[in-house]
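I'll show a record.
***
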Amino acid sequence: MSQHLEAGDIRPTPFADALGERYLSYALSTIMSRSLPDVRDGLKPVHRRMLYAMRELRLDPSSGFKKCARIVGDVMGKYHPHGDAAIYDAMVRLAQGFAVRYPLVDGQGNFGNIDGDNPAAMRYTEARLMEVAKALLEGIDEDAVDFRETYDGEGDEPVVLPANFPNLLANGAAGIAVGMATNIPPHNVGEICSALLHLIKRPNATIGKLVDLIPGPDFPTGGVLVEAKDSILEAYRTGRGGFRLRAQWETEKVKGGGYRIVVTEIPYQVQKSKLIEKTAELMHARKLTMLNDIQDESTTEVRLVLEPKSRNVDPSVLMESLFRQTDLETRISLNMNVLDADQVPRVMNLKEVLQAFLEHRHEVLIRRSNFRLGKIEHRLEILDGYLIAYLNLDEVIRIVREEDDAKGALMKQFKLTELQADSVLNMRLRNLRKLEEMEIRNEHKDLTKEKADLKKLLGNEKLRWAAIGEEISEIRKKFGEKTELGKRRTEIGDPPSDVVIPLEAIIDREPVTVVCSKKGWIRAARGHLQDFSEVRYKEGDGERFVFHAETTDKLLVFGTNGRFYAVGVDKLPGGRGFGEPLRLMFDMPSDHDITALQIFKPERKLLVASSDGRGFVVAEKEVFAQTRAGKQVLNVSGSNEAKVCVPAEGDTVAVIGENRKLIIFDAGELPEMTRGRGVILQRYKDGGLSDAVVFNKADGLQWKSGERTRTETQLRDWIGKRAQAGRLPPKGFPRNNRFS
């Protein structure tokens, strides 16, 4: 078949090159034409095209509404060749007062709600532009911005909007491109305008001063910003960071001296119905033991009523537990990744974003002024022709009546331009009255003055920045803090103090029996079992650790690799069945095993030792780690492994080796460390350490012998110094060389 193809039809290319070229094209398309907003108008292409199409349909704020299906059809057919659902979704979001801080679209009909309910189909809803959108489009017919061909070449669309409104920061943006993303929360436009005016006066202003003027985001759903000031400053300084946002709440007194908590504002982009559902699930799982009930009494305003189980519960403790476990507290990320004026994606800081907006407004002002100047010069040329005609009216009439080429004759006789001659010839007879001449002279005078002012403006940068300052002041007056729309909704709060939440507030305190087999299968049977012989194990498995605990306890696991791991008793599987492998609850290597398992007691100290007879004392609070990887405490290497982990409660240490030699020495000889190999506890010619224990010398040394516990108080023969070899233990000491 290939023999019929002409040369050049097939181009051999390495697959990696062909794939890379195509993927790069896709990535650039996603970044430039879909996901990242332009720093100048804060819009993505779909939003820009939608607003422009609505303007072309004359959907001004003062006009009537049109069906959304008509608008979506125009946007899709003329400007944005993508799916209608995607376009409609974008339009709906711009109309939702709980999703956008300053809505750009005025929607009529069902546009969804904060519970996450879907909007009505586009054939039922109607829309028009809002005043904010009108400000974004202001001057678009006055050569304020560049236009380009639409996708089919049949029309033109703006590359960027004139944007007489700081939309990027005011409404924020979110998008995921290829290899990059953006997330900019909304801000208060009054504060943005204050920062812009300050930047005009002082171009070298610091980020710190700008953050004083813009203290943080301002979300449409309100809430309380509880991020630390230095963290906010760092986020705006780098363009990356995040903000902690909490629900706004208050307490209401009820009969009988009790109270209930009312949540009046929930965090941004949290669906109220899902928040209630998640909270109810936690209550059902008994993870919110202080909360009795949650009710939704919302109308157009949010009102979630939380009933505590007891009036003795501290409201702040109850709310802190909810903040930690539900979306009543969320983290809003900041990633100011935008397309700059050259369409290059990059992360900008707060000052760069504000400066880019000002530079855009400066360019728009120059372009609009030049456009207006051209219009004035065109009009003055026509008016000059009219005035010549009025001064020589009889001669003009004669030429028009008698000359074959009236236009040429007028141009020759009165030295008129072609435009002036055409304008005179096209003049209506009714305009020849004296009053019209006066109006023309006044218009000529006014336009001449305006022309001089524009030339002065274009020739003086200070005047231009003063004009931009006036525009920004007007925006602040129209949409700022003194208006209903512009009032700050998100309260700037202090970082929360460390409220201590008792574990019982999150988990029901219940007695359990922890059972861990020789093969490491663990479970928690309800209640404190008295007869451990009733506990059943898998065939070939047996008892290793069995002890009483409570569901609020934490378990401390010590591995042969010298690492400590932690797991909550409430996370253990129930007593029915044989449980689950303990090692699956954290990242213990498969070639290591469990050395010790006990309840975590932060006030206690532990003696840890390895098989080569080295060890030290460590505070138990220092070994606790909630990460799956655990915490390395006792360093071991080669065939050496961690062997002992016992409470260091007493004044004397007893160590016995695999060679059945026992040494007893003062506990003060052991150092307290947080990590390391430790010091030598006992020396061996053969074998290694078997067991160690810390006890009070006055009480004697105890060990298990079968079912009985034996005590030896005459210890003089075995007392020595640390690192000695020791001697054979007392008669009756277990043959396994272990104290328990």
